[in-house]
Design a protein that fits this description.
Helix content is 6%, strand content 41%. The chain has three helices and 23 strands. The strands form four sheets. It has a nine-stranded antiparallel sheet, with no helix packed on it. Strands 5, 10, 11, 13, 14, 16, 19 and 20 form an eight-stranded antiparallel sheet that branches. Strand 8 and strand 9 form a beta hairpin. Keywords: Isomerase.
């Protein structure tokens, strides 16, 4: 690619998506791309240099407010799960965000030209169900190596002196070839809360997490790096996180999938949610305080030897 062509390369493009919803496309010259909707500030596509889709979005997903989009990376805020009078997983994922007119100064390398800054502030309607003032800034960035980075900054802007408390998750739907051939590494021996057993606390016993039935677990005090191994495609997703101590692992399996209206009956076989989250110990911000939570995703080739991941091919470096 010549210098002139590089100058003309479109790293960030605004356009209309499904049902006329506003979206932003991020690109890098090798062919990787990311699509993010202003509705929900939701990433709905992440493709590698071979244009292979790395995120799962249901064929039955409803791209129409107020329904949240089923798949991609919904943002759960100000709560994960269902509590009180707030809707499940909070309201950030089905509100219309704006392009941030005053984005924060974040350290970005000169090669990272593909990013968008989005902003959510409370509406009068939201204040009735969650009576707090806040600014939620999200940067979605596509790295030069095809990695997808999401950085959230949430600030308490209450003028009444009151703190607020919230839980949070990047509800990431990974696209996998066959869920029965997937394993997750990095969560073994850890404690978890089992949402299918009234949030009882257990300790993970397996060498790695594999899947043969419905799972909905919140792993606690997790490492900063987690690996999702797609054995069929010989691909490993690396999830790196900061400011998010927990990790949610979810797959509805066959019975639950049939009960979800915007989810295909057999689609559970081709997806797995592994979510960087803060669930067990909610975050409290006093007025003027800011919280930051970051997730970085990358996809690398993986190879097996005697059923084990080649350690030289995954989670290399810091």
């Amino acid at each position: 690619m010549s210098g002139r062509e590089k100058e003309e390369w479109v790293y960030v493009e605004q356009r209309k998506g499904v049902n006329g919803l506003d979206m932003v496309i991020l690109r890098e010259p090798r062919g990787c791309s990311v699509e993010v909707y202003l509705y929900g500030a939701q990433v709905t596509s992440w493709k590698n240099e071979r244009r292979e889709e790395l995120l799962f979005v249901s064929n039955k997903a409803v791209f129409k407010p107020p329904k949240a989009i089923r798949g991609g990376i919904p943002i759960c805020f100000p709560q994960v799960g269902t509590h009180g009078n707030l809707e499940q997983h909070g309201f950030a994922r089905n509100r219309l965000w704006s392009i941030d007119p005053d984005p924060p100064q974040m350290a970005t390398s000169s090669s990272n030209k593909a990013f968008v800054d989005l902003l959510l502030k409370p509406s009068e309607e939201d204040s009735k169900i969650w009576p707090h003032r806040y600014e939620f800034r999200l940067r979605v960035a596509l790295g030069a190596g095809g990695e997808l980075m999401l950085t959230s900054r949430i600030r308490n802007t209450n003028t009444d002196g009151k703190p607020f408390t919230f839980t949070f998750a990047y509800h990431t739907y990974f696209a996998v070839t066959d869920i029965s051939e997937v394993r997750v590494e990095g969560l073994e021996t850890l404690d978890y809360l089992d949402n299918l057993k009234d949030k009882q606390r257990f300790t993970e016993q397996g060498d790695a997490i594999t899947f043969e039935s419905e799972v909905d677990k919140v792993y606690l005090s997790t490492p900063t790096k987690i690996a999702v191994l797609d054995h069929e495609r010989k691909r490993t997703f690396e999830l790196r996180k900061d400011g998010l101590p927990d990790a949610v692992v979810w797959n509805p399996w066959d019975k639950k999938a049939k009960a979800i209206p915007d989810f295909g009956h057999d689609e559970y076989k081709r997806m797995l949610c592994v979510e960087a989250a803060c669930v067990e110990k909610p975050i409290t911000l006093r007025p003027g305080e800011e919280w930051k939570g970051r997730q970085e995703l990358s996809a690398v080739p993986s190879s097996y030897c005697s059923g084990q991941l080649d350690p030289s091919k995954v989670l290399v470096g810091g």
